[in-house]
Design brief:
The chain is an alpha+beta fold. The chain has two domains: 139 residues, 60s Ribosomal Protein L30, Chain: A; 164 residues, PurM-like C-terminal domain (Phosphoribosyl-aminoimidazole Synthetase, Chain A, domain 2). The strands form two sheets. A seven-stranded mixed sheet has the order 8-10-7-11-9-12-13, with helices on both faces. It has a six-stranded mixed sheet with strand order 1-2-3-6-4-5, covered by helices on one side. Strand 4, helix 3 and strand 5 form a beta-alpha-beta unit. Helix 2 packs parallel to helix 3. The N and C termini lie close together (11 Å).
């Protein structure tokens, strides 16, 4: 069965059209549409589907509502945008209690209020196969300032925010019977919350756009290996990743059967930002770090001239790095 990238390319080949107001269509974290002479609209959509993205037995409804919006806000963060409005489509199974749905909305609207985003409409329909939510997010940015995947250049340095792989570890803990509880040890809470309640990195995305600092930007939703590959493909470049410098989880519970590095490279759902910066502007990253002193901003690699070829450098040796991150549609080998 074709993977997600192949499906998207197929859709794009069938649906690609042009318009004077369409700046960018299918292929990035959001479409870009001209709003007026000074601003562009940014529009994206994402879904949370029961037994694909979440299970009701381990996902508190407020956190589910938070995450459903957060993953959409993360797409705007990856464009350097500011969210404005959202539309919600709800597909409800017969067995769901109204109180559960109410709690989803409480969590969603709380996050929306945090980022001055207004839920303006949507759709409700019955579902014959579990709960599903699809949000369309509408944001904006100054004209000409949207950050895209296709601008990385030879010699650029690669940075990532936060710590990578925590969400994948948290998911494994949930699948093994753990549940979020404020009484859990802090390190377990952090891992589980990384999966259930991610933080969209809107502010740092906006700063990167305002300063015209990043040549390319993407959010890490599918895993570092896959999302870096998206940048390489779109930009026509390659990359070297320094394994020892990747900001991985500091603690991996014994019951988790993958390493911190494996989760960082291939786990997905971190919703951190991955971006490239010209070597000559790296000093400006320090001032950015001063603004976001609670958020690690880590140099993890460099851009090379080999299109689509990525390498993992460890102890002075380089081995091919293949995109092995999450893909709902890819058949397991």
């Amino acid at each position: 069965m074709p993977g997600e990238a192949e499906r998207i390319e197929r859709i794009a080949s069938l649906a690609r059209r042009s318009s004077d107001d369409l700046i960018l269509g299918i292929g990035d974290d959001a479409a870009i549409i001209r709003k007026n002479d000074t601003h562009w609209w940014l529009i994206s959509t994402d879904s949370q589907i029961e037994n694909v993205h979440f299970r009701r037995d381990y996902t508190p409804p407020r956190m589910l509502g938070h995450k459903a919006l957060a993953v959409n806000l993360s797409d705007l963060a990856a464009m350097g945008g500011t969210p404005r409005f959202a539309l919600l489509s709800l597909n409800l199974p017969k067995d769901i209690e109204q109180s559960f749905v109410d709690e989803i909305l409480v969590g969603m609207v709380a996050l929306a209020d945090q980022y001055s985003t207004i839920l303006v409409g949507g759709d409700i329909a019955a579902s014959g196969n579990g709960l599903a939510m699809t949000i369309t997010i509408i944001g904006e940015c100054p004209a000409g300032r949207a950050l895209r995947r296709d601008g990385a250049k030879l010699g650029d340095l690669i940075f990532a925010t936060g710590r990578l792989g925590l969400a994948a570890i948290g998911l494994q803990l949930l699948q093994r019977g753990h549940r979020y509880d404020p009484a859990l040890p802090i390190h377990l809470q952090q891992l589980i919350l990384a999966h259930l309640q991610p933080t969209p990195r809107l502010e740092i995305g906006q700063r990167l756009a305002e300063r015209n600092l990043a040549t390319s930007l993407i959010d890490i939703s599918d895993g570092l290996s896959t999302d870096l590959y998206h940048i390489c493909q779109a930009s026509g470049v390659g990359a070297i990743v320094y394994a020892e410098d990747i900001p991985v989880a500091t603690h991996v519970p014994e019951e988790v059967n993958t390493t911190a590095l494996e989760n960082a490279l291939n786990g997905g759902e971190d919703y951190e930002l991955l971006f490239t910066v010209p070597r000559g502007r790296v000093a400006q990253i320090e001032s950015l770090r001063a603004q976001f002193n609670d958020l690690p901003i880590t140099l993890i690699g460099e851009i090379t001239s080999e299109p689509g070829r990525m390498y993992l450098e460890r102890a002075g040796e380089r081995t091919p790095l293949r995109p092995r991150g999450h893909d709902h549609l890819r058949q397991e080998e």
